Amino acid sequence: MGQSPNSKNYTDNPKDHILVQGNADMKDGQVHPRIWTTEITKIADKGDLILSVRAPVGDIGKTSYDVVIGRGVAAIKGNEFIFQLLKRMKTVGYWTKYSTGSTFESINSLEINNAVINLPKEHEQNKVGKILSYMDHAITLHEEKKRQLERLKSALLQKMFANKSGYPVVRFEGFSDEWEQCKLGDVAKITMGQSPNSKNYTDNPKDHILVQGNADMKDGQVHPRIWTTEITKIADKGDLILSVRAPVGDIGKTSYDVVIGRGVAAIKGNEFIFQLLKRMKTVGYWTKYSTGSTFESINSLEIDNAVINLPKEHEQNKVGKILSYMDHAITLHDQKLNLLKLVKQSLLQNMFI
């Protein structure tokens, strides 16, 4: 069990001893050095497992370093099977029985030592640990690939749109014209939403899909959640949906004809406009309209008068296409990642007694 050094001995000097106090010092199942100490109390050796004994109780990781451990964790010398078993115990809520009703969620050394587990022979332990470790590795690789794609997409959003000079930093070959400055309302039809009477809301998918705000969108797409028998304002299939209330500026698309409530606006725009609106959200364009307001929102005039820079249509199509491709690649990696996590979860449930 860990024992915290005196706080006066904490440092930010990587030449001192790495201190692991709790979940904040671990990331993706590994110790990530954050605080150091000159005082050695209790230690964990490189390769040991690190169990969180305070909220959140039961989180488990590994250390690739020799570390000092504080009272929020315990060090366990265990193989890959034990590591995966402890992951499963956390998942199924094994430790909950010790902390339910407590003011401060924690487990002690007696509860950890007396935890009842089922062990196969060593050879089977190694086989089970190996396959589950492989799954963890695959998940980590896909998470990193997704992060790389997201960073690349973010960089493209920053560089492929014109700055104050009227020219983008990164451009397709063959394009050199200055982008034209205009207002969003001059190049795209904008329809502000109007909410139906709540008495007309239903849960019947045969009625009209109602989009009221960000809660009705997921991963940049409308996901039907509420329906209505009353038609107020509509967005057609393929329209862009802009959130005009907190969180202001979130943007998505609809694959359905929908009724739109007062929390959103419908915009008839191409892929370039969609990606441009994403960028405007990212750089905080809409913040100037809602800063200091009690209720964060933007109105039709502010949307119509939003100043944008537009290239010729052919360049719009090229920019929109590459950014759409990036979105698609990110979505595919996310789906693969979720599938791998489901497989891993299933294996954790079924490969242990």
TrEMBL record:
Transmembrane segments: none annotated. It holds the Pfam family Methylase_S. Residues 2-151, 177-341 form the Type I restriction modification DNA specificity domain. InterPro entries: Restrct_endonuc_typeI_TRD, Restrct_endonuc_typeI_TRD_sf, Type-I_RS_S_subunit. The keyword DNA-binding applies. The keyword DNA-binding applies. One of its GO terms (biological process) is DNA restriction-modification system. Signal peptide: none annotated. One of its GO terms (molecular function) is endonuclease activity. Keywords: DNA-binding, Endonuclease, Hydrolase, Nuclease, Restriction system. Belongs to the type-I restriction system S methylase family. This is Restriction endonuclease subunit S. It comes from Lactobacillus delbrueckii subsp. lactis.
